[in-house]
Protein 1
Amino acid sequence: MVHMKLGFAPTRRSIFSAPDALKYRGLIADKLNELNVDFVDIADINDEGLLYSDDDMIKIAEKFKAEKVDGLFLPHCNFGTEYVCARLAKELAVPVLLWGPLDERPDENGVRLRDTQCGLFATGKVLRRFRVPFTYMTGCRLDDPVFERGLKDFLAVCNVVKTFRHMRILQISTRPFDFWTTMCNEGELLEKFNIQLSPIPMPELVDAVKAVKAEGTEVQKVVAYCRANMGIRIQDDALFTVAALKVAMKGLAKQYGCQAIAIQCWNQLQKELGVMPCAANALLNDEGIPVVCETDIHGAITALMVEASAMGETRSFFADWTIRHPDIANGELLQHCGPWPISVAKERAKLTYPLAFEHPGSLAAEARHGKITLCRFDGDNGEYSLLLGGAKGVDGPKCMGTYLWIEVENIKRLEEKIVTGPYIHHCVGVHKDVVPVLYEACKYIGVKPDLYDPIEENVKAYLRGES
């Protein structure tokens, strides 16, 4: 599971009840501990452990930076001090969660102790003035299920943002000549998003494969894993090469400090090594290192975003949109030669030969059904967006490679979005509903969310804590 760290900066304002603010400060901290949330407290900054003064804000910012917090939590324990909250958020430049507990009934004399809701209105306004994007979870009780849900979703948002801002992708060779769709603007990705590429030529990969083959130990471990977890339908020498390719790519990713790989999977690789890389890709995908086909850099970016949104609970898979379902009106086939992680398969994967290629080294397995999220980061002409939405796995004809028949709400609407762009025939899927997390993360990274179904109001309702 992924580890995220929150900066916990509960806030108050002097004209409302300080004792009640202190009470709620403690209750919220206890709830975070109960939920096993790692947070940096400010109890050492002042006697109350509350944010309300500029001097303390500077100390809090220094502490949070030193602790490298991934997100800022600003619970309003009474009205709160909106301008100090905004200054702290601006200084940290991390995702911000704005929330406060529901106010109690006024007492018998009409006195209100906290006015938390009113303070949240004020802080939202000042954050906008400071041009600080923030996530707002509407007021609720600490024991309401939506509090835990909203907090965990926010941690996932923090993970997507952190991942997106620190991407480095290993690019193994150029894109295949015929794939003009997978061209990308390396300079623009760096300038706009700080996304870095580490390009290497095909001979460097081949040399790395030869080196790990000669050493042999790690390669034999991978061979043993494959025999234990896959049905082997290829020769021993080809299996050894597939395993060596996996070990070599992992080593190169580590050498260049990369979190994902985009590889020119055909045709030069087959001339050099005699195998397809699909199964090697699948093995790395199962370890949380996404490997995407046809040197699709935007596909690798998508995979890293999806992996981050799932918080390590399940692996993603890289797919082609291919053909309509022959029997289901809104059905579609997601398929690729065989690079999907075996953890998403509903059957024992076979290590075999792919569709349309003569060389061994791809997996064959249908993915398990259930609810999935599909998305695609892409752009052209300087504008970038994230296509995203939901689908469900359905039955369909048997296919080769790794595949899943899906059903969406309206395949014609989705098809039109892909064709008119800026998207292509590649997408990334995951067996989890992460649409709200990815939608919310977009506000922090300068990417436009593009829902392929008209569900934006439903997503917003979910994010603000509605059932």
Note: The first strand starts at residue 5 and ends at 8.
Protein 2
Amino acid sequence: MAKIKLGYAPTRRSIFSAPDAIKYRGLTASRLRELGVDFVDIDDINEEGLLYDDKDIAAIVKKFRKEKVEGLFVPHCNFGTEYVVARLAKELQVPVLLWGPRDERPDENGIRLRDSQCGLFATGKVLRRFRVKFTYMTNCRLTDSEFERGVKDFLAVCNVVRVFKKTRILQIAPRPFDFWSTICNEGELLEKFNIQLSPIPMPELTEKIKAVKDGKAVLEVVEYCKASMNISVSDEALENVAALKVAMKELTEEYGCNAIAIQCWNALQSEIGIMPCAANSLLNEEGIPVACETDIHGAITALITEAAAMNEKRSFFADWTVRHPDNENGELLQHCGPWPISCAISKPTLGYPLAFDHPGAIEAEAKHGEITIARFDGDNGEYSLLLGNAKGIDGPYTKGTYLWIEVENWKRLEAKIVEGPYIHHCVGIHENVVPVLYEACKYLGIKPDLYDENDNEIKAYLRGE
């Protein structure tokens, strides 16, 4: 599971109860520890361990940067000092979680100690003035389920932001000529998002395959395949699959990449005689997403989708292919055979793909159940993230890795894909991460595009309803 470190900067304002603010600073920190949250506090910055003095900002920023915090949590332990919060957030440039505990009943003299909710209204306004993006967690008690859910979702949002902003993709060869749909703007990805590509020619991959072929790592992959799959290819083909997997992983490490986009046909087949699908599957299983047909945007989608699930589950790269023969809202997600085997409903087979004569593809139906489907894409300088839910359903057998799904309204979704900026590729994962990805989009500078058109439902969830 991914670990995110938060900067914990509880805030107060002088005209409200400082002792009560200190009390809630401690109670909130204790609750975070109960939830297993990794955080850095400001107890050594001033004797109260609270954010209220502008003079403390430089020291807090220095400490949080040294500790490499990737999110800022600002509990309003009383009203809070909104401009100090905004200045700190502006300096740090990380996702911000804004929250305050429910205020207690006024005492018998009509005195209120904190007015935390009122302070949240003020801070939200000032953060907007500073153009600081923030996530708001509803005004609730520490013991409420909304608090736990909100904190965990925010950690996942921070993980998406971290992965997105540190993405470097190993591009193995140019896109296949026929795939004009996978054209991407490398310069724009770098300029807008700091997403970097590491392009290498096909001969560099084939040379690496030759270099690793007699190594121990290849033998280990062969044995893993024999234990995990039904093998329906020759020993030579299996060895080539293993060598390709090892070679791609080594190149990924050498170039400091976290995902791959590969020209999976046809030049590769003339060089090594196999499809790369099974090797892709093995890498996908290890948490190194591999997108087919040099689909850079597909690799980005896989990275952020897995990040939204805190890297605990593997995603699968798929084509939207054909309508379900019996279900008006059904569709086939399929690809030649690159899906990680943990997605499979039963033991997969290493065999031959649909439409190609070369071996080296996984054959398996994926597990049913709830899934999230996403696609990061863009054209003409505008980027968005198509996302929504689906469920796995029964359908006819087909070759490759596949899953028949049902969505709420297929015609609406189909129109979104055709009208763009999307293509026939998408990424699925067996978890509902739609709210996390939706919220992360505000920090990524891209538009969330919900194909279920359930914006109000997602916003209600994020509010804690």
Note: The chain has a mean pLDDT of 95.
Protein 3
Amino acid sequence: MQATFLKINPADSVVVCLEPKKKGDVIEIDGKTITVNQDTPAGHKVLIKDVAEGENIIKYGYPIGHAMTALKAGDWVNENNLKTNLSGTLEYTYNPVSEPLKIGKENRTFKGYIRKNGDVGIRNEVWIVPTVGCVNGIAERLVKQLQKETNCEGVDNIYAWHHNYGCSQLSEDHENTRKVLRDICLHPNAGAVLVLSLGCENNQPEDFMAMLGDYDKDRIKLLVTQRVDDEMEAGMQMLRQLYDIASKDERTEVPVSKLRVGLKCGGSDGFSGITANPLVGEFSDWLVAQGGTSVLTEVPEMFGAETILMNRCTSEELFNQTVSMVNNFKNYFLSHGEPVGENPSPGNKAGGISTLEDKALGCTQKCGKAPVSGVMEYGDRLQNSGLNLLSAPGNDLVASTALASCGCHLVLFTTGRGTPFGTFVPTMKIATNPDLARRKSNWIDFSAGQLIEGRTMQELVPEFIDKVLAVASGEPAKNEVNDYREISIFKNGVTL
């Protein structure tokens, strides 16, 4: 008989309902019989022991908040009776935990594009990158004209990456914009890039090009539209040259150790931390064991689970960087007069996530158990293989853009509520529950909901690995099929 509830950790004081429970239903757990006191939706929590007012409630083996009033075994635990323990910044102590991955090397490969600098891309696209939002319209016209002329034959696609910035920004915001645009220009999923400038913007074209370093000048070209009589004619001339070069590139077998994957969740529900996130965590561990790279971000969604990540850092230096990353983001919230613990969205709460700790402990399942080998600031580019942490907010578009910008070839995006979007790299959607996978098959690339339909993790992990490697080898993700692709850059300060 298939289970109708799940106790995730032996220390937990709640179980998660795998299907809706009615008032009066019975739960047999730990030798006790618990009667459900209220109708409780699937994905939500039922208390399996009495707790006093102020007492912590445990899930995943950790506190997810405290009871706002005295509660009885069988009560439905939700945002109306559970309150976060989070407040301000904290001091942390490094208590390293070493847990070697017991995963063998498989010598797997995928078909990618080897670039001149030795980097590898999983797409071969022609991109237009505006230095300032003023030229977005020109970029779009150029894309349409090149698509019409070429029908994209010989390349995977042609895109312009619109944004609103590049001028009227100050200090950190301005530098963040420049760094993300630099990272896009240098991304190996682009076979060729036209940098499109207005000319008078704060993001001055020559200074921006200097940020690219020793780039391939045959594949990255600059057009300053104020300096030419006909920007369409000049732009098309450059694009035809770039297209001619990129269209000759071919896929070749490369080791899976070259693959870099971003880890993200959005529209989470009560199943996220028990199906899709653990599945992605298994993949992340497998990839790291093969010599590859995974990146976890969404710093606010680490609050409440941050010590797990801190203690997996391979050095005290990385631990200190992680502490700074977490406390800096808390200070960002507090500096705007916002509470640290106010993160779960209405959709999260409806899906069974009641506090930020509840969300964070499920969110961090995506990075498995690998040690943390690198910590990056927003806009930084990857330097270390293995599991990395990246500073970025929880916002789906901003965080996914940040993952792609640091060098990830694709993003694995788990979701319980569903979302169609994609960033400038393939953005695979992994459903946490079978209902979403069935209803939104045009959005979902893989269903981890099979885990609550009787499939085992041992069965599903190889299938998921095959699916990710297929997408890396050219199979389009659903966001690519739908042509849902965009970028979003983090903004903190004033606009002039």
Note: The chain has three domains: 5-83, 125-250, 257-482.
Protein 4
Amino acid sequence: MEDKEEISSENYANWFALYHLCQNIGSRKAIHISSVEFGKILNLSQQTASRRINQLEDIGWIQRKITGKDQIIRITKKGADVMLAMYKDLKQILEEILIVGEVTEGMGEGGYYVRIKEYYDQFREKLGFKPYFGTLNIQLSDLNKELLEENLKNRIPFIIQGFEKEEEGYIKRKYGSVECYDCIVSRLDDQTKKINGAILKIKRTHHKKNIVEILAEPYLRDILKLKDGVRVRIELIKKS
């Protein structure tokens, strides 16, 4: 592809400059900016920033119009296509980065909620399996949690609808909705056994920071021989 060829080692500096121009233009069509101001953004001298702008114009990634000491810069379609190609590359890289966490002791919260008939019936119907009465709790680092959250933004979850249920004394209690994302869980040190499951995204939970709950049909601690501290890999499944 032409755009792929343009994002070459010789063009890294130009792409970096284009990226910062796009950042500053935002939703506007163009930006008024001097080479001095652009140099400050790139942490470069005015001369180098001016040369970079000239290069971007020469290769057709921007158009500019000189207005006194300032210039009006607009990103061309060719420049936008280059940004889109880089976005697709980075998106694919992000999706392929391993999300790894450590098995940790749960609070029994997952098992309590899975047993509730209104939740259990929806899990069975929407996830396509009979869930074990409990969840596997995985502790993620800040980086892995951010990677997971960024990946989930681009996926459509199964929604387990919330409901109201009468408790003792005829008091109605509200149970919130749950977002579920298909995933595969395996031991990081042994990829021979991979188990299908679902990440549960619960709005209200008492878990400590960066805990992810995984629901599956089998008892994951047993079938994968997991103890607290064992590192596991979470793979997100793309819907066809």
Note: The chain has two domains: 2-91, 99-236.
